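Case study B.
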Amino acid sequence: MAKTPTPAELLPGLSYKPPEKGWMDVKPDFRPGTYCNPAAPKWMEWINYPYPAARSIPEDNWELPKDWKEIVLQGMEDRLQRFRSLKVFFDICVRCGACADKCHFFLGTGDPKNMPVLRAELLRSVYRRYFKTIGRVLGEIAGARDLTEDVIKEWFFYLYQCTICRRCSLFCPYGIDMAEMTLLGRELLASVGLNIDWAMASVAQCYDKGSHIGAPPQAFKDMVDFLAEENERITGINTMPSINRKGAEVLFVMPSGDYFADPGTFTMMGYMLLFEHIGLDYTLSTYAAEGGNFGWFISHEMGKRLNAKIYAEAKRLGVKWILGGECGHMWRVCNQYMSTWWGPVDFLEKPVSPITGTKFENASVHKMVHISEFTADLIHHNKLNLDPQRNAHIKLTFHDSCNTARGMGILEEPRYIINNVLPEGNFVEMPPNTIREKAFCCGSSSGINANENMELRMQGGFPRANAVRFVHEKYGVNHLGCICALDRATLPTLLEYWVPQVEITGISELVGNALIFPDELERTTDLRDRDLVGFGELAEEAGEEEE
Amino acid sequence: MQIATLLSQKKAAILGRWLSMIYESYPPETAIFLRKEKNRFDNPAGYRISEGLEGLYGTLLQEMERDQVMACLDEIIRIRALQNFTPSQALAFIFLLKIVIRQELAEEIQKENLAAEILDLESRIDGLALLGFDVYTKRREKIYEIKANEAKRRVSGLMRKTGLTEDGLL
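Model:
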């Protein structure tokens, strides 16, 4: 029997001071809503991943293989030899704490183990125990600990609460890359059968059928046809692209979110209008129908397997170079890994814009150009006929996607495009400590945009949404632009919780809205069928205001 | 002296203590950060919680529209409805104000014989807590709603193509 608690007694920090515990003794609380479900065995079987089993997080037994400990330690040893960076990151941290409050998951959850310094310590403590003399001898005093099943569970919990966004690395005086550690930690988990279902299902579908969503080639063509019909209905312009056409100059690769899920579909319509506008000789591929790469969120090896299709298809079709759509992690994989995995890429040419003659020197190794670079170059050379007034109903702020901005430095190109396709004064930046290199992550990237961990995602995205809310309230911003398909998939949900007045748009959609074609229908709506200013309801509203 | 005047005079002390108690419901390292970092974008939770508390305190000082009261509650509860708290822990902060006021105004309450007024004030804090239940429930419902909406949006282009949106399925 106990007394009914007072309100203060319900809160541990107030009613009693919990006994001081070291971080090693605090176990993660697997509360529903905060973790991703483990991968169903069938997905792992599809791609021959080890130790498939029907696992359940709340159960004590996670069905680890008998020799799990040897596998993990051997895996760590292998990676320490293969990745010098990992060893340096493990050894060099001086616990200065500069990264501690820079992680969106720490800011949102308030959980100290989401401080990057502590998240890294989850792995580092095991490294010390088994690979450093001081840890072997002194144990916990030297920050070392035994590898137990509880440690593995803790890794699973926190390594899937990191979106590999690298914001912490920006503030680290040594440049320690938490993303690298998270990726390698996830590889260790995968080596004993622990993967998350949302990412693994996408990977298996992509490996087997060609896209994360599991759409067969016919469905891909069907959607492209539909979006071309939509373009024609709204603009009167036929934008139907060729598919699998040999001898095209350019292969265009986009993330599958752009042809299946709104609002990505409007971005896809924008690409098609742009290419028609400039008469680009391009083709799409049903084989390389997925630019996204959830494999990279599981392991380098799986990232490489899924990525194979892009060069293979470029070679088969005999194109000169590759153009990539608006996607964040796709871009990072293609730009920073692809040519290392498969190069030298001697079957493609150094990309040159057929319209402006610009040589994309930055893409001379991997032979792939980002759509924002390509479009900004077109605008810079005055090759697009644009009417920014067609975007007058859009007051925009821009979310720098982590991989393209912090990872790749694509900061100015999207802003240059935005300033040319929106009326003056319709673009507002969020505060400087929340954009560009310091951009806050969407909180749902790196394969954790599942449904079952929604509370976690809303917490992780809170700092981003907080800045969006500021510009919405202060400047009347009603759209958040981005050049990432995962952003387009997850930010609508984030803002529905935190700032429901703001919608998400890709930048190429805005380009599509603004493009003027000689033989077009009179444009009265944007690509989403919303009235342009001066037409329909917006004209009526303006009339009422005048009265 | 009326209690409203006392609440105005001691606003900074009462609010500061109330805020401090809320921060203490987080792990110690987090509480230090929430208290220390003053930039509203680098410390979004600290900023929103303190803004919400100030607003709520204002509802005790002057009359406000119900929507405004709910908005102040929402400012804090929509954060705590996601975090690692049970529903009672998420809402306990409202009741803590009673403790703070009793402690901060202990002397005045005795001297000025404010028993009746304090009873009324505490009743209004109870009212805030009851409204807090409504806000909390709405926020939890919102989570389920956005889950469902996102699941639909994942194939929404396909649904539009097949015309299912027009049938009211989306």
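The mean pLDDT of chain A is 94. The remaining cases will be described in the next quarterly update.
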